[in-house]
Structure formats: structure tokens, C-alpha cells
Amino acid sequence: MRRNRLGAYLFSFPSFFLTVALGIYPIAWALRYMFYDYQGYGEMRFVGLGNFARIMRDAEFWQSVVNTFIYAGGKLILTLPLSLILAVILNRKLRGRNAFRAIFFLPTIFSASVMSIVFYIVFNSYNGILNQYLMKLHLVSGPVDWLGASKAMLTIVIIAVWGAIGNYMLLFLAGLQGIPEEIYEAASLDGVNPAQRLWYITIPMLGPVLQMIVMLALTTSLKGYESIMVLTEGGPFGKTEVMYLYLYKLFFPLTTTGTAVQNIGYGSAVGFTTAVIVGLITWAYFWMSKKLSSIY
Amino acid sequence: MALKKIAARSPMWLLLILISIFMLFPIIVAILGSFKTNLELTTGATVFPEQWQLSNYVTAWTQANFSSYTFNSVFVAVFATIGTLLVSSMAAYAVDRASFRGKKLLIFLQSFTLFISIGAVVLRPQFDLMVTLGLHRSLWAVIIILISAHATAFFMVIGFFRSIPKDLDEAALIDGCNFYSIFWRIILPLLRPALGVVALFTFRGAWNEYILPLVFSLSRPDLQTLPVGLANLRFGAGAAVENQLMLAGACISILPLLLVYVFANRSFMQVTAGSVKG
């Protein structure tokens, strides 16, 4: 159908146009503005690498980088093993298998921000629903400060895990389809127990799929900030401030906390830096998992 | 013997049940709580409402602007879904079934936007562009930006195109169809179930979107969608935060998805499972 070059151009034009105008141009825009000092109005001043020098000194930004690692690390450590175990269980013939799958996957269909509102009411320190139940059952003597400085990050991670397990369970389930049944039959003849089966057969056999799932989980959790924005806005005292939330605050106002001042030039530089950090971590993971798989 | 088997399997069942409770807890709390009074919600520690307060929904709908939020959400999600389906299936058709200069570039651009994220930075130039077009005071800005982010849909549709044999196009060509009529008459009807899955995925994304409509409604509160309007309630309209209205509002947002999910949860799951295979 080579004759229909015109048709092909017509059909791909909307996609081209929208992607360039609203996907690529904004990146080019940021690459330009990151060399300027510009508040969004008034004078625009070229500062060269000045913004990057400022990033180096910006303690709040580096705190948000550390917080992002805590958040992403906590989310991954809880989500991946749990969802793998659930996938292995629900891959077998089991009564109610489809119902369990549907229940575990359910949280992933809802809006993170809407569910954060529900969690806000659940975890509220003074009159939250969880504290009411815990106190009624005499499990705690006084209200637990779930969104306070010491526990806010833990609460955020729990909520993130809640929303993520179903997704990764399903990805693992899809990966498990690729492992031939005969291997397990042979193993059971050799008297292999379930833990050994998981560690010595399932995980190595998942191989590249596992690698891809971990990478997906890693990049997604480094980028997540929606539910944090709704629940804590990065507070209290910046304890739950993550990179992409800090970035948002440099461009748009938030309702309560107003420590960051909007600055387009500086914000663009921070955006570039966060993208590089995420890219580096992804690359490092890729490199490491390649090394590890060549050892095997 | 049977008893021994049950005993050996009980940790597994315990895990399944505990995780089920964990997963369902907030959803059940939201649904049951949306029928309670604010006082019962904040001090009651009850499971079921003492009296089912249907009035929470009436108040949310009429006085807390949820009718307007819902209208805006439906408007954005419907048009973003239609637009995404059109743009991505047309581009996927051109890429999969024709050869033209720039084909590789288009595939590269799509995967590039999929992997590179500079976060909220892009919202600012996007906003400025919409100001230039005079669209920044309308929900069309949100819709157009949502459509522009169609890389995932594009790759999903391409995956489905591969399942339609090319002989079919050639047969249709001999029968007098051209490039355009093959798309409308042959490909699209065959793709209908697959496009349904993409539509579900896109609709969910647009319906749940928070940050984009938030930014575009900063100076226009009447453009707020459900997630935006709901999130703003947490600071209270007057003196008191009205938890029961927040939960009723949350239910207005999650119940449509929940209903579709009950009947079509396999289609929802197909999207996720497909992304690892393809």
C-alpha cells in the first residue's frame, strides 16, 4: 500500500502534532529556561549554570531526594514480595481464585487522590476511623498520630502499597504463565518444599519478566506524588516531601504549606535534575541486574 | 487426611483473607461512612450507620457542587477517551500498515514521552500554549492535553493491529477498498473489542486525573472535576470539615468505576497483563 503515503501522513499527523506540541516542546522549553532566573513575570535574566549551583546548596531539595528513596524503597520492599507470593498462590487451582484476584486488583482502578481523601478520614489523628476502632478494641490507649512527623511516611507507604499490590500481582501472574508446569511436577517428585520452589524455580524462571516488573515498580514509585500531595502536602516539617512534589511547588501554589516560592527558571533546573536522578537509578538497576544474571 | 491438608494450607488462607480485608477496608469504610452523620463518623466507631443518611448524597449533589464536578468529570473523560481512541488508532494504522517517512520518528517520539518525565514542569508551557490558543479557561485544554499523552494507548493498539492479518487488507484492496475505507470498514469493526479495552483504560485515567484539572481550575473553580473538588473539601468550606460529605463525594467518584468493574473486571486486568507480554 505504498501508494497511500498521503493517507499515512494524514492519519499520523494528529499524533505527531499533539506529541510534539504538548510532549516534546515543553521539554525543550524547560531545557531553555533552566539557564534563566525567571519568576514567571517581570524580568528574565540569564544565569548560566547558576540554578544548578543553587540546587547543590538546596537542602530542602536533597531532603526530598532522600525522602523519595525512603518512600520508593519502602513501597518496593513491601509490594514486590507480597504481590509475588499472592500471584504464586492465585496461579494454582484454588477455590475462589478469581474472586481473590478481583479483590486484590480492585484498589488499582480508583483515583489516587480520591482514595487519599478516604485515607485522610481513616488515618486522621484526632478523630480518624482507624483510631476509633483501635481504641474501641483497646489495642491502643490513646489516638495514634498516623499523619504526624514520626509516622506520616509509614502511613504514606502503606497507602501506596495498598494501591500497588494488585497491579504487580497481575504482572507476576502474567509472567508465571511462561513457566512450564512440568518443572514443578519434576520438583515435587524430588520432594521440594514450597519455599524452595519459590526461591530456586519460580524466581529464576521469571528472569527477564521479573527484571522488567522491578524496573517498572522502581520508576513508578520514584515518580509518585499525587496521594502525598492530597494527604500531607509534604508535611509535617517536610517529612513526606518527595522530589516530584517539591518540583510541583516550584511551579504552582499549594493550599497550606508555602515554603517554596514559585520560580520557573529554578524549577526547570530542578525538573531536569530529578529526571536525571530517576534515569541514573534506572540505569544503575539495569546494569546491576545484568551483572547479576550473568553470574547465574 | 483431609484435616491435615487443611491445616497445612491454613497459613495461605489466612494470608489471602488478611490481605482481602486490607484491600476492602477503605472502600467499605467509604461506602458505609457516606451514609453516616459527621458526628457518628468522628466519634461513633460504628461499622454500620445507625441511620442511613441518604441526605448526605442530596447535600453533596445540590449544595456542595458535586453535580457540577460530576458533569465536568464526565465531559473530560468522555471526550478525552474518544479523542485518544481516534488519534491513537489512526496513528497505529498508519504505522502498522503503511510505509512513510517519519514512521520511525513517530515510534521514537511515543516511546520517548513514555519514559522521560520532568514532572509538573511541562504543565507550565502547556498552560502557556493554551493561553495562546485562548483555551486556558475551558476544560478543552485539559481534554487536549490528555489526548496528547496517548503513547500507552498507541502501543496497545499497535499490539492489537498485529493480530489482524495483512492478507485481509490486500483482499479488501482487490475488492475496491482504499486506504481509508479499509480502516473504517475492515480494521475498526474487527478491533472493536480491543478498542473497548483501550477505551476502558483511557476513561479510567481521565476520570481519575487530578493534577491536570487542578492546575487548569486554579482561577476557575467552576471547572473543577470530582477529584479536584473533593480534595479541596478537606480544608472545610466553613468552620468544620464535613467528613460525611467528603465520603459521599468520594463514593460518587468511585461507584461508577466499581459498577463497571463488577461486570468487566477481566477487561480491566487484561490491560495490565497485556503490558508485560507485549
Question: Which structural traits does this protein have?
Answer:
heterodimer, A: 296 residues, 2 strands, 1% strand, globular, B: 278 residues, mainly alpha, MetI-like fold
Report on the architecture of this protein.
The complex is a heterodimer of chains A (296) and B (278). Chain A is an all-alpha fold and 296 residues long. Chain A has a single domain (37-295), classed as Orthogonal Bundle (MetI-like fold), CATH 1.10.3720.10. Helix content of chain A is 71%, strand content 1%. Chain A contains twelve helices and two strands; from the N terminus they run H-E-E-H-H-H-H-H-H-H-H-H-H-H. Chain A has a two-stranded antiparallel ribbon. In chain A, helix 4 (97-105) crosses helix 7. The model of chain A has no long low-confidence stretch (mean pLDDT 88). Chain B is mainly alpha-helical and 278 residues long. Chain B has one domain (55-277): MetI-like (MetI-like fold), CATH 1.10.3720. Chain B is 76% helix and 0% strand. Chain B contains 13 helices and no strands. Chain B has helices at 2-33, 38-44, 55-62, 66-97, 103-115, 123-133, 139-148, 151-161, 166-174, 179-208, 211-216, 226-232, 243-277. In chain B, helix 4 crosses helix 12 (226-232) and helix 5 (103-115) crosses helix 8. The relative contact order of chain B is 0.14. At the A-B interface, helix 1, helix 3, helix 4, helix 5 and helix 6 of A face helix 1, helix 2, helix 4, helix 5 and helix 6 of B.
Oligomer: heterodimer
Q: Total helix count of chain B?
A: 13
Termini of chain A, distance in Å?
Answer: 48 Å
Looking at this structure, what is the CATH superfamily of chain B?
A: MetI-like
Number of strands of chain A: 2
Count of separate DSSP helical elements of chain A: 12
First and last CA, distance of chain B: 44 Å
Helicity range of chain B: over 70%
The string of secondary-structure elements of chain B, in order, is HHHHHHHHHHHHH
> Regions of chain A with pLDDT < 50 over 5+ consecutive residues?
none
Quick check: average pLDDT of chain B? 88
Shape designation of chain A: globular
Number of individual domains of chain A: 1
Greatest interface by residues involved: A-B, 92 and 99 residues
Strand content of chain B: under 5%
CATH class of chain A: Mainly Alpha
> What class do helices, strands and sheet pairing of chain A give?
mainly alpha
| Secondary-structure element pattern of chain A, one letter each | HEEHHHHHHHHHHH
Q: What is the 3D form of chain B?
A: globular
